[in-house]
Design brief:
Number of strands of chain B: 7
Number of strands of chain A: 0
Oligomer: heterodimer
Largest sheet of chain A: none
Largest interface: A-B, 21 and 28 residues
Radius of gyration of chain B: 16 Å
Distance between the termini of chain B: 44 Å
Distance between the termini of chain A: 49 Å
CATH superfamily of chain A: Amino acid/polyamine transporter I
Structural class of chain B: alpha+beta
Chain lengths: 404, 119
């Protein structure tokens, strides 16, 4: 019974926690500029994420190792410092982008400039990290994130053509702005398959003491939760395509993106958009800072855990404190949050191969996953992602220059 | 002790003390080279040992920081191979963390973290 409750909670919170600054910005821009045409990119990225999340949970449940701990043991520090440093740098940039997104949300509600909100929001993020255990962070923020279902309701009320939606799940080339189209598909991949999610999920699996016997809980939660979560991202794209596209509104700022809910929710639209953006970004900020502490502590063999009293894991607690301060400092520089988000997503794609390649090796090492090594489908997915990530990493910088 | 594979069995493994407390990871392995070949004499735990494996400069910077914060004494922690009790998923040693300086940074930061709200 308890396992079924865990599955339901896991699925519901995955849906609530799916949307954050990256998915809202990329989906809104993709919908406004290319209609439904980039739905396939969200579909592909969502399936990839679901496969990888399931694998990271399986690795943790069977081996009692998180990804970063296993990579340190299997490949040594001489290799691991590269992905670890990259992960920490990207985590800090993403954290700054999420804090910026949350601050924009408060600005939409209050009219007061977003920079004024960075510090209070950063402090709130830190307070949640200090005061709350893993379950509260995971489930509490995920449940609050269900407000993002307003995008699904909006997309439903706008009555898109089912035929057009289904047709958009097959990739097609656009008639205009091919470079921009490619850049947005890269960004959608970066926004969806965030490397921090993999180690965060495996750490959560260890924190919740999931065992080999409960692998079905892991796979059900991962596949259903992530796939349902992906539909929220698709709903943002569909709503944007049906509301902003016909009026030729391109999403150059979050203020413009907020307009997409107006035809359905009227005077509540801006507040609902702000709540969705704010809660999504706040939740992601907490998870990113926590993941940085997980990654660092696990790689170095320190005591770690969001469920431990903070003084019992003092180095772990100090790392999330320092990373939160670093994120706040970067956000306070005052970069345009949307621009910062897009740059962070592009860099995420750049580091993807160094994160995915060792993960692929671990998932095929019976010393870690016993008989639960990845099958050919999982292997192909991960290998494809790694190759795609490497190719995209080479292509994405010029795309950003010419298309971003 | 049975034959060990340095990279697979020792390096980067988690080190637990006599009471099962985490002390860190095997950051460096100390070898003694004799006419009969190379033998493991000790394992080391600590950022300067770890840093030196990434790059000598990183190791020196880590050592410099330890000196700056007066944490250099007894670090990196060196555990003689005779004190290794078990080599498996993790490495268990016949010492308590308190007998070494492995948790010096943790203890130093504990005073700071205790001031956090709710701690």
């Amino acid at each position: 019974m308890s396992a079924i409750v865990d599955v339901i909670l896991g699925i519901v919170t995955s849906i609530g926690g799916f949307i954050e600054v990256g998915s809202i910005s990329t989906s809104a821009q993709a919908g406004a500029e290319f209609g439904f045409q980039l739905l396939w990119a969200i579909g592909v990225a969502t399936v990839m994420l679901a496969v990888m999340i399931e694998m990271s949970g399986r690795l943790a449940a069977v081996s009692r190792h998180t990804i970063d701990a296993a990579v340190r043991e299997r490949f040594g520090i001489s290799f691991q410092w590269v992905p670890l440093a990259a992960e920490l740098a990207i985590d800090t940039l993403l954290l700054a982008a999420e804090l910026g997104g949350a601050a924009i949300a408060v600005k939409l509600l209050t009219g007061i400039g977003f920079l004024w909100w960075i510090l209070p929001i950063g402090f709130l993020v830190w307070l949640v990290l200090v005061l709350c255990g893993f379950s509260v962070i995971e489930y509490g923020l995920g449940l609050l994130g269900l407000v993002t279902l307003s995008f699904v309701y909006a997309a439903y009320r706008l009555q898109p053509s089912t035929h057009d939606l289904v047709r958009s799940l097959v990739p097609t080339m656009p008639h205009h702005d091919i470079v921009r189209y490619m850049f947005l598909s890269v960004s959608i991949l970066g926004a969806t398959v965030s490397p921090y999610l993999l180690n965060f999920y495996s750490s959560g699996t260890v924190e919740e003491k999931l065992t080999e016997k409960e692998l079905w809980v892991n796979s059900t939660t991962a596949y259903l939760g992530i796939c349902f979560g992906g539909t929220v991202s698709m709903a943002v794209l569909v709503t944007s395509a049906m509301v902003l596209g016909p009026q030729h509104i391109t999403v150059d700022s979050y203020d413009q993106a907020a307009l997409m809910l107006v035809p359905v929710f009227h005077r509540w639209a801006i507040a609902l958009f702000a709540c969705s953006l704010g809660i999504g970004c706040f939740g992601a900020s907490v998870e990113i800072a926590l993941n940085a502490a997980y990654a660092f502590s696990q790689a170095l063999g320190w005591t770690w855990g969001a469920s431990k009293p903070r003084p019992d894991a003092a180095r772990f607690s100090s790392v999330f404190t320092l990373v939160t301060i670093a994120g706040v400092c970067v956000a306070l520089i005052g970069f345009d949050p949307l621009r910062l988000t897009m740059i962070s997503l592009a860099l995420t794609v750049v580091i993807m191969p160094v994160v995915v390649l060792p993960f692929l090796a671990l998932m095929n090492d019976s010393r870690y996953v016993n008989k639960h090594t990845s099958g050919p489908i999982g292997n192909t997915f991960l290998a494809a992602l790694t190759v795609l990530g490497a190719v995209l990493a080479i292509v994405v910088v010029p795309l950003e220059v010419f298309g971003g | 002790m049975a034959e060990l594979h340095l990279a697979r069995d020792l390096e980067d493994k988690r080190v637990l003390d006599r009471n099962g407390r985490e002390m860190g990871r095997v950051d460096r392995v100390v070898l003694e080279v004799t006419q009969n070949g190379a033998h493991v004499t000790a394992i080391e735990i600590g950022p300067s040992a770890l840093g030196s494996r990434v790059h000598p400069v990183v190791g020196r910077v880590a050592r410099g920081l330890e000196i700056l914060f007066r944490l250099e004494e007894g670090r990196p922690v060196r555990v003689p191979v005779e004190r290794i009790e078990r080599v498996a998923d993790s490495i268990k040693i016949d010492l308590t963390a308190g007998e070494t300086e492995a948790l010096a940074v943790e203890q130093r930061l504990r005073g700071f973290v205790r001031r956090f709200p709710g701690a």
